[in-house]
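Quick note —
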Amino acid sequence: MNNATLLKATDLVIKEIHYKIEELEKIINLDARKKQTLLEFDTWRFSVSKLLDGVFSERSISKEFLNETKVLLNKFSDVENVKKINDALNKAKNYLERLNDDIESGKYVKGNNDSVDKTTALTIIRKILRNFHKHIEAMYQDEVHRNGKIKMADLDRIRIGNEYDVQRILYSLIRPIFPEARLEVVDDAGYNSVRYDIVLNEYDIVIEVKCTRESMTERKLTEELGADSFHYKADNLFLFVFDRIRLIKNPDAFEKSFNRKKQDIGKVIETIIIQEVTF
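Predicted structure written out below.
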């Protein structure tokens, strides 16, 4: 659990982070195709990490920052590498801007930290996933109030088409409770990189989102979840399947086949399938 607090005055920390953002903007304006740009970015990243270690009581903030902004180059594609570098630059800027917002809100002032323990966090995440369909029903399908500005015709235009749509809605439910939750975090799995859909680093929780589609078979879904179960590193991994087309014939058996205890493979895997709603 992240109980980090500020070791320095809030205004001083905000000023120092703003200065680092200004440094980053100069790097953003450089040519990402040149090797020197990546070298300058890496030097800047580690200087930010050192700053964060000096102003926070725990190293979890700097570790998360380094993890989110590292660049894993593809030795066969210069075009892909340029995209990766630019993505990392933007993620770094967004991270520091979010961090400054949190600092300004008083989140890291001693006595203001309202983090929950890991057992409670797992219970909350589990309830959000199990009741995801209730949010869909309440937000998009229940009748709207006649005096409201949001009309049923507006809501009818919103439809879940793929896992990115599910991921967006799910993240919007999780982030108000866990502000440090992150979307699409890339990590190094040794020989290749993996992308986690939603990560709660402070609790070592990863949520992998799947949405079934007409071209998918149950066997294909099984293979994808099996690969995720093997590669994803976390104490607690949630496999969340929004079965939009009711692909899975026996959801209870399917869930049970992927659930694992920590003593089995070094992590807890919980599988949750939603079929209760047509959306």
